[in-house]
Amino acid sequence: MQEEIIVRVADASDEKYVNIILDTIRDAARRRGTGIAERTYDYVATKMKESKAIMALCGDKFAGFSYIETWGNKHYVTTSGLIVHPDFLGQGIAKRIKDYTFTLARVRWPKAKIFSLTSGDAVMKMNTRLGYVPVSYNQLTDDDAFWRGCEGCCNHDILVAKERKFCICTGMLYDPEMHTGEPTPIEVFQDIIRTLTLRGIAF
């Protein structure tokens, strides 16, 4: 019998999984023929240490991952890098991770707009369920640091040629003042509150 898959807020002890996370993200992009925002080992490890990432584990085996980041003086938040290891596909892990990243962003920055750039149908469906709507790129952050993250994508030339007005990915936005969606499970909210409180993180 397979062990239970646990989804939780990452911490420094998860740094041992960084390389497999990066490899899994790259492999998935190659299989889909889509671009990715390339991230470094240190970048992902820092997200874990700052409690800004979500891990899915089956025992000590890596099952899935995603992280959050703030932009524009914390007026915008992204939930990014959502990946499920091929050994664990089809088990609803992506939805569980998305529920965690979305709830973590809402708890830590309740007034921020949450956005996503994606070319994947599955992520678009999950975003729509939570209340995101498709938007033009001019409604997303103008923080240059965010857009520099697209430089490692194979479609970056398109983004530059279109002056950051649009690209292959669909922009989706959750504005807490305008949109409501299906609530994430209460147990996810409670787990995140408990975790952040134990780690002494203000919210």
What structural keywords apply?
203 residues; globular; seven-stranded mixed beta sheet; 7 strands; alpha+beta
In short:
This protein is an alpha+beta fold and 203 residues long. Helix content is 36%, strand content 22%.
Description:
By secondary structure, the chain is of the alpha+beta class. The chain is 36% helix and 22% strand. The protein is built from 7 helices and 7 strands; from the N terminus they run βααβββαβαβααβα. The chain has helices at 18-32, 41-49, 93-108, 121-130, 144-148, 156-161, 186-198, and strands at residues 5-9, 53-58, 61-71, 76-84, 113-118, 133-135, 170-174. The protein has a 7-stranded mixed beta sheet, sandwiched between helices. β2 and β3 (61-71) form a beta hairpin. The longest helix is centred in the middle third of the chain and has 16 residues, at 93-108. It is globular and about 45 Å long.
Give, in spatial order, the strands making up the sheet with the most strands: 1-2-3-4-5-7-6
Instruction: Give the percentage of residues in beta strands.
Output: 15-25%
N- to C-terminal distance: 39 Å
The value of Rg in angstroms is 16 Å
Unreliable spans are none
Question: What is the N-to-C succession of helices and strands?
Answer: EHHEEEHEHEHHEH
Name the helicity range.
25-40%
- The helix tally amounts to 7
The overall strand count is 7
